[in-house]
Amino acid sequence: MFDGYDSCSEDTSSSSSSDESEEEVAPLPSSLPIIKNNGQVYTYPDGKSGMATCEMCGMVGVRDAFYSKTKRFCSVSCSRSYSSNSKKASILARLQVAGKPPTKKAKVLQKQPLVAKLAAYAQYQATLQNQAKTKAAAVPVEGFSWGNYINSNSFTAAPVTCFKHAPMGTCWGDIAEGVRVEVPNSDCSLPTKVFWIAGIVKLAGYNALLRYEGFENDSSLDFWCNVCGSDIHPVGWCATSGKPLVPPRTIQHKYTNWKAFLVKRLTGAKTLPPDFSQKVSESMQYPFKTSMRVEVVDKTHLCRTRVAVVDSVVGGRLRLVYEESEDKTDDFWCHMYSPLIHHIGWSRSIGHRFKRSDITKKQDGHFDAPPHLFMKVKEVDAAGEWFKEGMKLEAIDPLNLSAICVATIRKVLADGYLMIGIDGSEAADGSDWFCYHATSPSIFPVGFCEINMIELTPPRGYAKLPFKWFDYLRETDSIAAPVKLFNKEVPNHGFHVGMKLEAVDLMEPRLVCVATVTRIIHRLLRIHFDGWEDEYDQWVDCESPDLYPVGWCQLTGYQLQPPAPQSSRDSQSSSSKQKKKAKSQQYKGHKKMTSLQLKEELLDGEEYSFLQGTSDQESNGSASYYIKQEP
């Protein structure tokens, strides 16, 4: 509620009569821009002032949104109340002239001006509302706050543009610090929802730290808000939507002319595109629907796929229920762009193992997902030199994603797909083989780990340590897969070491956790889950659909797993995390070699020469690596 907000206009004195006469607020110069949006300048079409003051309650708002022909009132109720109370004042005056004693109610009306009385009543209502808010705020809210986490530790977050698969990932534009928006004004005692203009002070993924215009360097009322949320709008939205713009109560005394202040502050500034909310909505429309049937990896036997049904879709992530699960508890979570899901018939088309369902016919309402919905892989030419069974390589272990292991191509499928097994850990029936495409960023040529100073996990039980590829190839009578067959493309992904994000725990894919990029090798990212030990880190590709910007969970309604508290890490490590560790049954080999040992091996190794390009483990620039086998 504004007490004495006449200072926000040129002259807004109230009248005790119901006459509709008023003094026009001084118009802004027609050539003065209000805001710049994508290079365009917006002004009010009539050239008049964009602000007005309600003669009933004193609220300052957008002139075009006010009521009556002369724009004197902010709402219909204010207009009616003004007219009704003016009539009451007129009746009281006539009663006094007639010589009748005034009532107690009349004495109150006489003691203070009409607007002041109504303002006091509005203030009283606002006080009751604030008391209710304060009482509600006194109840502690459990949950994790990205804003507090980033502010208290001075963290930085990966920008939205790093995540092409996420909402607005490809159309984020130049949203940055300094952009102005219209947001709800929380520093106000009015009973109705009002807005004010704020500027972006800091960006962290989808989240923005905002500061109300007029606070200058005062950060006392700064607040975090999801840019894609429903309460944030481009400058000008209030004018077109009929919503009032009201300065925060804390700074209402700072300026005598808020119109001139806003014009000066907003001239030449940037705001969100007018269709920003529409773009957000469109980017959150997902083609996969419930009851669609897909083929997905069998989580109990990685070598095969099974039919599953889409049970729910959250932010592009699919909860798939295996078709044979009667109670719908046997499920699997993955993103709709995951390489682990395919259209019905994919397994047969490439020669992949497939578990046939005992269900002889489709259940009512279930239907096959159209093939065009699935992520397309890059076409390869297998006619010439190509992968062959028995070739050696290095691969991320799907059962222990923190490890890159010695691996072997066990079967070559159609369309560029390969079945790969981890040396020393394979089941006799091949049930733990897993399928990677030839262009997958999760497989690497022999020597990749050594040249990039990554610990390579040798075969379990291998005695000759430290592990040397040349010796191992000779002992196993094997050859290395040709380097030229691997994917060496490195996109300019934009990630940097230390950036925060939200990441899926691929060992427990229903969980999305607070995470940090701790290392970058070309396009490969080392993801650390905040609060957990480094041994649970995971190697993930920079374009993985299992990585999301800060604020993704809030935007989509998905539950975010916060960092483990310092006080409970030890107990968690020995309980819940041990369950997770049991999945990994992989020997991790000896500790990483020292730089001196590595250099000595590189100098002594006559069989391989490693030619490294502009590799920068801490940058996002393109890099290449080659391994040349000497004759």
Portion in beta strands: 15-25%
Secondary structure: helix percent: 10-25%
- CATH level 1 name of the domain at 175-272: Mainly Beta
Rg is: 33 Å
Unreliable runs: 1-49, 91-100, 104-122, 124-141, 575-631
**Largest sheet entry:** 7 strands, mixed
Under CATH, the topology of the domain at 175-272 can be stated as SH3 type barrels
Count of strand segments: 31
Distance between the termini: 85 Å
Provide the CATH architecture of the domain at 175-272: Roll
Based on Cα principal axes, name the global outline.
Answer: elongated
The overall pLDDT, averaged over residues, is: 78
Number of helices: 14
The secondary structure category is: alpha+beta
Protein name: Mbt domain containing 1
GO biological process, one term: chromatin organization
Domain FCS-type: 45-80
Biased composition (Basic residues): 577-593
Structure in words:
With 631 residues, the chain is of the alpha+beta class. Among the domains are: 175-272, Roll (SH3 type barrels); 286-368, Roll (SH3 type barrels); 391-485, SH3 type barrels (Roll), CATH 2.30.30.140; 499-561, SH3 type barrels. The chain is 20% helix and 24% strand. The chain is built from 14 helices and 31 strands. Strands 5, 24, 25, 26, 27, 28 and 29 form a seven-stranded mixed beta sheet that branches. Strands 11, 12, 13, 14, 15, 16 and 17 form a seven-stranded mixed beta sheet that branches. Strands 18, 19, 20, 21, 22 and 23 form a six-stranded mixed beta sheet that branches. A hairpin with a 2-residue loop joins strand 12 (301-314) and strand 13. The chain is elongated and about 95 Å long. Residues 45-80 form the FCS-type domain. Its main location: nucleus. MBT repeats lie at residues 144-248, 256-352, 354-459, 467-563. Residues 1-31, 561-595, 609-631 are annotated as: Disordered. It is found in: Nucleus.
